[in-house]
Structure formats: structure tokens, C-alpha cells
Amino acid sequence: MKEYFDTNHDDVVSLLEIVQFFFHFITKVVLYVILILLVLIFLLFFFYFIDLLYNISSGENKPPLFDAYIIVSPSMVPTINVEDAIIIQRIEPENIKQGDIISFLATESYYKGKVITHRVIGIEKSSDGSLLFRTKGDHNNVADSSLVNEKDIYGKVIFRIPMLGYIRHFLSTYFGWILCIVIPFLYLILSEVVRVRRMISNKDKRKA
Predict the structure, then answer these.
(1) What is the pTM of this model?
(2) pLDDT band for position 12 (50/70/90)?
(3) Which residues on adjacent β-strands are paired with residue 92?
(4) Preceding peptide of 64 cis, ω within 30°
(5) Comparing C-alpha atoms, which of 40, 56, 55, 133 is closest to residue 94?
(6) Nearest of 104, 130, 132 to residue 118 by alpha carbon
(7) Cα within 13 Å of Cα(17), Cβ side
């Protein structure tokens, strides 16, 4: 009976160790992902402010070098989905090509004042020589009714982060902050404290 009990006890201990290992691993992955996102955000803001200071000192009025948006419309599905985050980079109008995805200030009455992200399907020139871009959402059946003037373009989409909007919404809640940030962080600290105490205890036993 004792041998049977010890065998089951060892199985339970092994199972707990496996669960602890996976929880520790997942916690580290989540925190590393958050850390990488924070570093990327910091770098974007760093270059943003450097470029902003340069524009101010030179008297130029250009859009930010980099910018980020959360997509709230399905007009670019499946290329860009709702709640995806996009990073855009400022680009000279003459470097924009057909097929590029750009973010621009809408001038249509319904969307006026909003930032739209659509694909360039045509390029024209106005009478004063400025470039005009015909755009269309990949999910839309028809092209946008108004041409986009080069002065209203904020930048070209360089990459997207899927579903970041959902993560942002979740982390903005009290429960999300506790579950994804505080608990994993406390767990890592406590596990490291326990590990250090075990090491110290083992050293004391060896000395004794």
C-alpha cells in the first residue's frame, strides 16, 4: 500500500511540475511579447519626435515620419481586418505606386475629417500638377467617389499587427490588466524568489 501511495504521489508531483513549467513558459512568452511591443512603440515615438523637431526647425509642415492606427472598418478585409493595427510611414507622393495601401484624410462629406486606409488603384495629375490618387477598399465593390490629393496623404502602410485592437481593449480593462500584466509579473518574481531561496538552502545543507 505504501509503495502504491508513493507512486501516485510521484505522479501528482510530476504533473504539478509540468503544469508549473508550461505556466512559467506561457507567462514569459506573454511578457516578452509585451516587452517587444513596448520597445517598438518607444522606437517609433523616438523617430517620431526626432523628425518632428527637424520639421519644426526647418519650418516644414509634413506628416509624422511614422504613425499607427487601429482599423475599425471592414473595407480592407481580408488584407487588413477590423481591430488590426497598422504602421504607416511618410512617403513622397511621387514614390506612391498603384497597389500601395495608403492612409489619408477623407474629403468626402460622409467621411470628412476621418483617416481612411485604402488601396491605390489609379494615379492622375491635376491641372496644377499635383498628384491625385484613386483609391478603393479591397472589400468594397466600388472605388471611392473622391480622388485623394497628395497633400492629404499621411503615409503608406508598411506592416500590420493582427488583432492588436482587441488586446488593447482587453488590457485597458481592470480585469485584463490584472490577468495579463500584474499576475504574470508577480508570478515570475515569486518563482525567482523561491528559486534563489532553494539555492541558498541547498548551499547551507552542503556546508553543514
Answers:
(1) 0.66
(2) low
(3) none
(4) no
(5) 133
(6) 104
(7) 6
Q: Which helix (H) or strand (E) holds 133?
A: strand 131-136
φ, ψ for residue 77 (rounded to 5)? -65, 140
Dist. CA 64–CA 155, nearest whole Å: 9
DSSP 75-131: GGTTTS-TT-EEEEE---GGG--TT-EEEEE--STTTTTSEEEEEEEEEEE-TTS-E
Task: Using pLDDT thresholds of 50, 70 and 90, give the confidence band for residue 42.
Answer: confident
What is the rounded CA–CA span in Å between residue 119 and residue 93? 14
Q: What is the rounded CA–CA span in Å between residue 3 and residue 19?
A: 24
What Å distances lie between residue 3 and 6, 9, 10, 12, 16, CA to CA?
A: 5, 10, 11, 14, 20
User: Grid coordinates standing for 66?
Assistant: 511614422
160 strand-pairing partners: 86
Determine the length of the chain.
208
**What letter represents residue 140's amino acid?**
N
Q: How many CA atoms lie within 13 A of 194 on its CB side?
A: 6
Residue 8 has a pLDDT of 55
